[in-house]
Amino acid sequence: EIYRIKLPGPPTVIGEGRPENQNHAIIFTRGEALQTIDMNQDNYFEEAFKMRNVLEEFLKSTSGQREPTILGLREHIFTGSVSSLAWFISNQETSFVTISQRILVNPLRVRFYYGHPDIFDRIFHITRGGIGKASRVINYGADIYAGMNSTLRGGYITHHEYIQVGKGRDMGMNQLSLSEARVAGVNGEQTFSRDVYRLGHCFDFFRMLSFYFTTVGFYLSSMVIVLTVYVFLYGRLYLVMSGLEREILENPGMHQSMALEEALATQSVFQLGLLLVLPMVMEIGLEKGFCSALCDFIIMQLQLASVFFAFQLGTKVHYFGKTILHGSCKYRATGRGFVVYHAKFSENYRQYSRSHFVKGLELVILLVLYEVYWHSYRSSNKFYLFITLSMWFLVGSWLFAPFVFNPSGFDWQKTVDDWTDWKRWMGNRGGIGTLPYRSWESWWDEEQEHLKFSNIRGRILEIILVFRFFIYQYGIVYHLDIAHRTKNTVVYGLSWLVLVTTLLVLKMVSMGGRRSGAEFQLMFRIKALVFLGFMSVMTVLFVVCGLTISDLFACMLAFLPTG
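The line above is the sequence of Glycosyl transferase 48 domain-containing protein; the predicted structure tokens follow.
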């Protein structure tokens, strides 16, 4: 033995599964054209007669370009009538495979390979590495890399809508979220890929911008939108806590900017996501008429389509940011099973806890604190009203959308069953071989698994982002009644002393409960002693130090977002 080569995974599965299978099977095909069809797609008898016309497109050259190497086909989403969510995603997908694809081909010239109905020039691609890249993790989203590879090697991609292929999309809330999480992770990995780097250097300036905003730029812009909400709320909270905002509002020069604020307040109405559905409305208007498009748009809003798309925004941002920070995008099976079923509360919690619920709760606390500490000197202001209203809408969507769109979500018996399953899941101990859906501890270990494989840069950035909780904790401590308006640093030090003491007591009780085992009387005595000590300390703080009930609520709001 001279040397060994470490494979990137098991010896039977070196690359990603689907592109490995495609590149392996392409050598067994015949002919000059190759069409890829997925298992969730269907074809129609009348469309088969058009195949000869489509294949003739390989012999045409358009606008001085060379003959096409990939023929893009339109898709017909036939699952839109199953539920309201299926209708939402069907309209969104229809606009993407029609009007968006036309724009990507001409004039932008940045269309790639986005799905399975496309027809490949077999000879061109079999001599240039196949129809997909199969490197582990980085080429997890194998579809688009076929188009990138074709463009980099001198190919040309077109789009044709006189032929269509049926397609069944995911229809349940959890399935759609998993699908969106997978696509967001794929775009996160694309950011680090050499294909995006090479295309960015090869394109001209305008084509490069078109390529950016139609791929990773869309998800990066979505992340910037959510980060703007955080920056705005933390910045305003800092101004309120430090007293700077009160001085700014009391400045006579501020009254001269009322006209600008009213104009911005009017503009904010159109920034609630209404412009994002403009391509959808335009495509429905072109195919069915603008009256039908307007009626469909109104019905979608009445069926809470805005709530659903605001929730999907949180899914995009979480998984895209997670992949950017720590990498390791992984496959998330959607199942594509029967979707009209009631998802249990523990299932929704496992899937949306870190991506939506925790972030939504943090935004709620920021909004409440801003409201509480600003009410003493504020005046009616339309600009702040509209901005806060849109943020409350975003928070409500993140916290309640999984339950609003859950079938039989208001059935009392199912609610009782969900509570029983939740208690069982929270009470089960984890361990080796325990699946995440059976124990909270196993689920938590799986959720934090990405930190084990993250590099030092990702871990440092994660720690820096967590430091944001100290901003309003620092401000709240000095606004407590027990602090008596003092600005001494001893007050902040005492708040940390209280926090550390509380954590130590809880840790001692937990360790005592594990060691006592079946000695229930000893455990009850420990808990009784802790309770009596807590009541004694609280009595002294209320009577001697001047602690108030509002201080208790403020402390809860300060330490609750840390989890």
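Note on the example: The radius of gyration is 28 Å. Residues 17-171+186-208 form a domain with the Spore Coat Polysaccharide Biosynthesis Protein SpsA; Chain A fold (CATH 3.90.550.10).
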